[in-house]
Amino acid sequence: MKVKIEIDTITFVRFWLVVIGFALSALAIFMARSALILVVVSFFLALALNVPVNFLVKFMPGRSRLGGTATAYIIIVGLLTGFLFLVLPPLVEQSVHFAESIPDLIDKNKDQINSINNLVNQYHLQEQVDQAINNIKNNASQLATNVGVGVVTGIGSVLGVVISVLLVLVMTFLMLLEGPSWLRRYWNMYTNEDRKAHHQMLAKKMYRVMSGYVNGQLAVAAIGGVSAGIFVAIIPVFIQGAPGNLALPVAAIAFLLSLIPMFGATIAGVLITLMLLLSSVPAAVTFVIYFVVYQQIENNFISPVIQAKTIQLSALVVLLSVTLGTYIFGLIGGLISIPIAGWAKILLEDYLGNRKKSIKKTKTGSVANLIKKAKKSQA
After folding, report:
1. Is 284 in contact with 273 (CB distance < 8 Å)?
2. pLDDT tens readout for residues 45-83
3. How many CB atoms lie within 10 A of CB 344?
4. Domain ranges, residue 346
């Protein structure tokens, strides 16, 4: 049996217009993905800074939102400046110590250099060594070109990062400044007061999830900073010649950089290792071993447990959300995956609760109708 389906021209055209519209929207989102990432980062940063800004607004003349936001930015800049003053002096001191030790290192390695020369002469390898040196000289121009291209590319990347950071800071400032007025306009668009109150309740719950995420990140960074500082402080007890004045700078570096999700702790580990390497290679190697072990503990135990308590998600859900977010959307996915998982939980619980209430009302109405019919039949 054949069934013939007739579709008029208008419906056919509308269908393909919808398909083309979705395709163009997806293409536009893909092409604007870099700008959208900056907007998303600014939005989450504004949510994170909203609590201290609201606190500072209470002390501003006339409760000025501009004054509170500007004060919060000044405090952040002050903390970063203090961080630099705390870290740079020990770093300069270690660099000077390393530069002063270079002559001693050369003197100690003279015997090894002489042994290499004797080995070359003994096995008649001078011709091969000269050939290798000539090859290096011949490729020097190409090497210089590659280095020059690398330097230009690196400068361009640094400038791009600086511009992106400035854009994020400006957008975050404007979001903090104008966010409350946007919210008031949005809530005033509601005509149904019950629905408005319900959506405001959901928004407050979702905002508490973001606040809990920020507090959890602060707690994880504090634990990491204190642990790194204590470990560096006790290294001189076991390794002779290890620096003993880096505990406080190390704790500051580990704490501040660990506030950056996903890759901040890695940057902190690299910087601390370089600082230790300038004074003692064994101390640097020891710290690398500690850092790798601690990162496994933090990523698989400390961070999931703390975030699970602060945003009321299980540690397994936190770990799964970070893993999926990172693998699907990269760094930004890992950054926003935990609060998004918390928001999804709130919306799912609300949907299931409303559905349960509607089912109960339907059952109650059906029972009431049956009772009415029974009474009518008896009458």
Report:
1. yes
2. 888 788 888 888 888 888 888 888 888 888 888 887 887
3. 15
4. 311-357
